[in-house]
Amino acid sequence: MFASPERALRRRLDQARRDLRMVAGTLRGVRPPVTVPRRPKRPGRSALGTRSLRVDAVIQETRDAVTLRLSDVSGAPLRFHPGQFLSLDVVVGGRRHRRAYSLSGALGAPAQVTVKRVPGGVVSSHLVETAQAGDVLAAFGPAGRFGFAPDPRAERRLLLVAGGSGITPLVSLAESVLAAEPRSRVTLLYGNRRAEDVIFRERLGALATRYGARFRICHVLEAPAADLASTAGRLGRERMDERLRALGIEHDVEAYVCGPTDMMEAVRAALEGHGIDRIHEERFQRPEERRGAGAALPTEPVPVSFGEGDVRHTALVAPGDTLLEAGRKAGLALPFSCAMGGCGACRVRLRKGAVAMEEPNCLSADERSAGDVLACVARPTEACEVELP
Ligand code: FES
Questions:
Q1: Residue 348: CB within 6 Å of ligand 1?
Q2: What ranges do the domains of the chain cover?
């Protein structure tokens, strides 16, 4: 493939056109900035190039949660906006697992992710128990559409609702907005079982002291503790209704929600019932909760034609490979960032054929009805024709 100079030239021109469109889109703010490695640096089990991040420090936050301070081993800056996440490729027991962790540091502070051990969680348990300074992790990103880059001219009213480790993107958002937007105000509702489960307890307390009326925090604890001011109960529909009224939350706030799925559904119902319609949610499911990952796939390679209009390249996709892996193995510079369905950077349009796509993912209803799929989590089940963006 791509043997003739004309084809190579045409491919470069195509790539330059795509890059220009992506840059223009990013400048208009219609797409998140994406990482576009041109070639995998080290051929390995995956066709996707990762960046190598060194663990500079491990901070024990609670009995079950640690923060990993990270830096790129190449010295490249780790740029992100509050609310974004990193996808980490972690090898446990000889098997490679991919997991997303929100960046929990504020803008301008060292990059970090915070990992909480979940029951039966292979990767979270491994990281909480064994991560140490000097470890090197393979990562994709930063990526994600949750959150935003603060704007000093903005005057926002933000309502952040977190459950358990859902605080990780929200603490980054709160701290960054309070520091960078002097006219913005933030209210945080944070639910946990017990006071000892509260991640960033001192950090949140310090924000309340520092920013006074601009930052309100309301802890909701199932088992209230004498040493932490809180509301008793579970952060479900009833408690949310009561807190929204008690705190005098206006219907024109912008809400950001992150936590367990059942909590998020109850919170959304309460917010909508309160007339709040600007609601942003961050959901990460454990692999065993994702649908489509184990779909019946062809046992033989299937042909997939990638291209823009008449300029097309056909690749044979090995059983189990995603469109992204297949395209990159074929030498196509397909953009991607998180490699796990959370950012939209790899969106392509399916013209013909069918794929099995892992759910949930970040595709909107409009994108789905237009025939878009996410190449990083879409596996062809028959011959396909894919239109590149
Ligand atoms: S690379 Fe992020 S959704 Fe595919």
A1: no
A2: 5-31+291-387, 51-143, 157-287
